[in-house]
Amino acid sequence: MTDAQQFISQIREDREHGASELARTCLDALARRAGSIEVTSHEVLRQQLIEFAQELQSARPTMAAITNLIGEWIAAVERLPGGNVSILRDDIKSISRTLILASENAVSSAAAHTAELVGTGKTVITHSLSSTVVAVFGCLVGNVKAIVTESRPPSEGRRLAAKLSELGIETDFISDQQMGLFTKHADVALVGADTIAGDGSVINKAGTYLLALAARDRGIPFYVCFESFKYLDVSPTSVGLEQRDPAEIDLPRLAYVKAHNIYFDVTPPDLVTAWINEHGIRDESSFAAET
Amino acid sequence: MTDAQQFISQIREDREHGASELARTCLDALARRAGSIEVTSHEVLRQQLIEFAQELQSARPTMAAITNLIGEWIAAVERLPGGNVSILRDDIKSISRTLILASENAVSSAAAHTAELVGTGKTVITHSLSSTVVAVFGCLVGNVKAIVTESRPPSEGRRLAAKLSELGIETDFISDQQMGLFTKHADVALVGADTIAGDGSVINKAGTYLLALAARDRGIPFYVCFESFKYLDVSPTSVGLEQRDPAEIDLPRLAYVKAHNIYFDVTPPDLVTAWINEHGIRDESSFAAET
After folding, report:
1. Which among B152, B173, B265 is the nearest to A181, CB-wise?
2. Which residues of chain A have a CB within 8 Å of the CB of B261?
3. Which residue has the higher pLDDT, A51 or B154?
């Protein structure tokens, strides 16, 4: 397996990072590869990097930030003039850095808008681990409490609890099935997203839909915050929901039993109170009107 | 620790059995103790057994079947004539056996009514492990498919999957957070109960409320089946929800993080399509009318 194939496989198998972080990791890998790959001409450099980028794009079908940010990277690389290999390498590295910065800034702005909407003195319940949601908590340190689900498998909620504890945020940690019970102790439900579909549906870690249902039933708002690179103008049913090895659920082999391990679910727009990205806040009606 | 104390502790810590089975296990223990306990008089026999029964009653506050069946046992034992110790022992054993049989028959009848309501050729999604629900599947063998949640902790859904596999029932096994996703593949959601409160609220394994929310959102019925010994004419908020050691959720020690492990949640009556016990089926309106 080549280094490139190994990296693609690592992105495909990653359970540690959210979609925004993975997208920026991919852009960083493209920059590093632009600097190191041995080529004989600028055409070959461009062609090989674009092929690598396209493979990365298809590695995580549920994560629109990867599709979109690498899509923008490919379009920008295609527009670059040819000629000098060394200048082309530098230009491609520069494009990568610019997009990484754009993504980071979008996440920061989305988090700041979300923190303002949540307000101070609130208890926020969240599901899974989103770097954007961590950034929101970062804005609210000293003025917020958290309720965090285990998010099994692979239980990335434990890493979120560790991050919040480092920030000094009082956190209640619960198994996924206690989500309904604890929503009544929360003022706000807040999640990140892997993809926002054209109708505003939220594709995110499985269980997000259950949290949204509980939030509606308990009468608390359900917010989703995301950089706009996560928006895909497609039907939610056309977004492939990645599956993992059912062995993660650890069921003994049984003749008539099939285990499933689908990592994502779809929360329909009627359960979302507000979508917040770097451009600001949209409530239900305005989002529906636009799409 | 005496044998009696050991048994009470075993009932308190049991994670293996549902409320109906545990209630009958308690009645069986009372019968065995009636036969074996060394006493000097019928007064002492009756008094010591009733004290033991009362301790059993308070061991599982969330399980009404234990409260009610042992309550009936105590009332019947108090009505017995005194006199001969040996006859009293036999009468008490007989009361225990009669109540065990009444409970078993109630479960069988409730299961038969439920199977009729579910109908054939359906896919049934359930949460946790209920012996009454297993009895329903038993009535429908050859004409039903199942979707079973892990029900973590302690993941008793694995034992349900094994039971259904033994019955030859095709079963999809999912983590708790996939519950919303898989409800769309089900025709019916069906659960047992630990307690049915006066207003029809269902107190059952945590996560049941989430299944009921998903069932309503997907437009499939949510049924609860139970022997009527599980009915308690009290407000749902007055039923204590048992908690377990948070270590079951396996979180490393973190300064600002508190783990919770509440085993039960409350599903309000407006999410229940029908309540089925040994006397038959009640839909929402008739249940509300009676209470």
Report:
1. B265
2. 175, 178
3. A51
Q: For residue A42, what pLDDT is reported?
A: 93
Closest Cα partner for B166 from A260, A250, A256?
A256
State the burial class of residue B20 (Cβ atoms within 10 Å of its Cβ: 0-12, 13-18, 19+). Answer: buried
Q: Helix, strand, or coil here: B238?
A: helix
pTM of the model: 0.94
Q: Is B164 in contact with A257 (Cβ distance < 8 A)? A: yes
Q: What's the pLDDT at A286? A: 60
Cis peptide leading into residue B154 (ω within 30°): yes
Give the residues across from B264 on adjacent strands. Answer: B205
Within chain A, residue ranges assigned H as helices are 3-13, 19-36, 42-59, 64-79, 85-118, 131-140, 157-166, 179-183, 208-218, 284-290
**B interface mutation test: which of A145, A203, A210, A271 has the most B CBs within 10 A?**
A210
Q: pLDDT value at position A285? A: 61
Per-position DSSP letters for B79-128, written without gaps between them: HS--S-HHHHHHHHHHHHHHHHHHHHHHHHHHHHHHHHHH-SSEEEEE-S
In whole angstroms, give the CA distance from residue A233 to residue B115.
44
Average pLDDT on A211-217 reads 98
- Residue A132's Cβ-side half-sphere holds a number of Cα atoms within 13 Å equal to 35
Active site (annotated) includes residue A194: yes
B28, B176, B194, B265: which one is catalytic? B194
Determine whether the interchain pair A180/B210 forms a contact, defined as Cβ–Cβ distance below 8 Å.
yes
Q: Which of B151, B177, B246 faces A151 most closely, judged by CB atoms?
A: B177
Q: What's B39-70 look like in SS3?
A: CCCHHHHHHHHHHHHHHHHCCCCCCHHHHHHH
Element holding B36 (H helix, E strand): helix B19-36
> What is the spatial order of strands in the sheet that B257-259 belongs to?
A280-283, A274-277, A222-225, A188-191, A122-126, A144-149, A171-174, B257-259
Tokens 């297993």 — which residue?
Answer: B134
Residues 6+ apart with CB under 8 A from B208: B127, B128, B191, B202, B265, B267
Distance of CA B19 to the CA centre of its chain: 3
CB contact at 8 A, A150 and A175: yes
Give percent of chain A with pLDDT exceeding 70.
Answer: 98
| B174 contacts on A by Cβ (under 8 Å) | 249, 259-260
